[in-house]
């Protein structure tokens, strides 16, 4: 509904000064996965200022929540944002930078930062919610505003579903599930594609065992540091030697915890490994190779005990529905003009957003919007230095607030109105 979208945004758009302040609040007060209590409470309090007509359910699978806005007959649209932050110490130098530390879900004290932009996601969805509430005379249908916990653990969506999101909590079954993510592209741009847009992800915790002893007598020990080092180096050959060129695959060792003194050879080492892939066949090959390499290196090092491998998380490829993407692309092209790129390359990061749609067998669409300062982006681009842009999960990641927030808000509003009916209509004209 391009004409409706234009009227809604022109006449009912939010006060971005207010949302700039709200964004800074979320950024300065991040919370780790499973612990997003204050963020969730702020979301509910903010939504309540828009209308008394919201139907709330909170505490779903932890801190997850949704608010339903019913506005006559039509399709049911779910708009989703994630709320959690990362155990990263912020180094942006912003006057609203996080200095927060908090105990994680295991009781360990960590620095906390919104290093992945979830604060922008939450703020944009709240601004979109106010816009859609204000413009109710112009559209018809049901909107579910869902705020999810623990996306960084790749487990928050599954936890909400397992806790009864669509059963016990009676969330309306959506006809369409929509979501977005701020990335390192130029602020003001929006991009996506049909088919796979984000990779499948798997996380493993691998514990290998040695025989501890004095650092001066390594011949009396089995050194798990050396064992872990061999595993790490050998894992790097999986993509280069076992996955065909052209197939997207990534294997990353993100953490190694072993030892605590220079003169002690400890008895075990723990590695945390993440993989990314698109093709299920090669996803399986990667997993088998990891297990084979770990087993072989343990045998080569004369490890006294078989390694323990725990799957920490697993989520499938985010695979946009072709028909939804076509409809969304038409709307985005009319609104964002040349700032919309419908043929973006696949993003090698991963999401559990798709779990919400897959749980009820419904189609979904996920897109991206840039957060990098346009002036700096153009300067770096001219110099061929775009690889120097701080990416998500970096301690330097800091989306410029505008036009990033405006773009994210407008994208959600335009997307929702693409699938909602016009006022007085029974359903959207788009064939879902």
From TrEMBL:
Manganese keyword on record: yes
Listed cofactors: Mn(2+)
UniProt keyword list: Manganese, Metal-binding
Origin: domain of life: Eukaryota
GO molecular function term, any single one: hydrolase activity
Binding-site list for Mn(2+): 116, 118, 152, 181, 393
Keyword Iron (UniProt): no
Coiled coil: none
Pfam family name, one: Peptidase_M20
UniProt remark on cofactor binding: The Mn(2+) ion enhances activity.
Domain Peptidase M20 dimerisation: 203-299
Protein family: Belongs to the peptidase M20A family.
NCBIfam families: amidohydrolases
Protein's name in the database: Related to metal-dependent amidase/aminoacylase/carboxypeptidase
Taxonomic lineage: Eukaryota, Fungi, Dikarya, Ascomycota, Pezizomycotina
């Amino acid at each position: 509904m391009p004409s409706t979208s234009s009227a809604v945004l022109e006449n009912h758009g939010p006060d971005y000064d207010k949302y700039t302040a709200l964004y800074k609040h979320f950024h300065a007060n991040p919370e780790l996965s499973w612990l997003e209590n204050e963020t969730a409470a702020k979301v509910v309090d903010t939504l309540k200022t828009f209308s008394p007509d919201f139907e709330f359910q909170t505490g779903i699978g932890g801190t997850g929540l949704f608010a339903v806005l019913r506005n006559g007959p039509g399709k049911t649209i779910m708009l989703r944002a994630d709320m959690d932050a990362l155990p990263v110490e912020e180094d942006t130098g912003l006057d609203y930078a996080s200095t927060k530390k908090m105990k994680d879900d295991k009781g360990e004290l960590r620095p906390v930062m919104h290093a992945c932009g979830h604060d922008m996601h939450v703020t944009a969805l709240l601004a979109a919610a106010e816009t859609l509430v204000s413009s109710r005379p112009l559209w018809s249908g049901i909107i579910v505003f869902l705020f999810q916990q623990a996306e960084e653990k790749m487990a928050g969506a599954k936890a909400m579903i397992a806790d009864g999101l669509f059963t016990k909590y009676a969330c309306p079954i959506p006809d369409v599930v929509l979501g977005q993510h701020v990335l390192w592209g130029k602020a003001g741009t929006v991009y996506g594609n049909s088919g796979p847009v984000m990779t499948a992800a798997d996380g493993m915790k691998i514990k290998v065992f040695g025989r501890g002893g004095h650092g001066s007598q390594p011949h009396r020990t089995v050194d798990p540091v050396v064992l872990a080092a061999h595993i790490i180096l050998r894992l790097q050959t999986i993509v280069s030697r076992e996955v065909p060129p052209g197939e997207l695959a990534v294997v990353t060792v993100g953490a190694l915890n072993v030892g605590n003194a220079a003169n002690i050879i400890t008895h075990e080492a723990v590695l945390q490994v993440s993989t990314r892939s698109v093709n299920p066949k090669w996803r399986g090959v990667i997993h088998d190779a990891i297990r084979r390499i770990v087993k072989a290196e343990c045998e080569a090092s004369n490890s006294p005990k078989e390694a323990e491998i725990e799957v920490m998380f697993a989520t499938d490829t985010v695979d946009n529905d072709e028909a939804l993407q076509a409809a969304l692309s038409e709307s985005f092209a009319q609104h964002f003009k040349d700032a919309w790129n419908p043929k973006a390359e696949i993003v090698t990061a991963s999401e559990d957003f798709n779990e919400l749609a897959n749980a009820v067998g419904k189609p979904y669409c996920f897109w991206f919007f840039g957060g990098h300062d346009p002036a700096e982006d153009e300067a770096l681009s001219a110099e061929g230095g775009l690889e120097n842009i701080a990416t998500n999960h970096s301690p330097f990641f800091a989306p410029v607030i505008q036009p990033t927030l405006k773009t994210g808000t407008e994208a959600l509003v335009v997307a929702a109105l693409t699938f909602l009916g016009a006022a007085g209509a029974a359903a959207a004209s788009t064939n879902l």
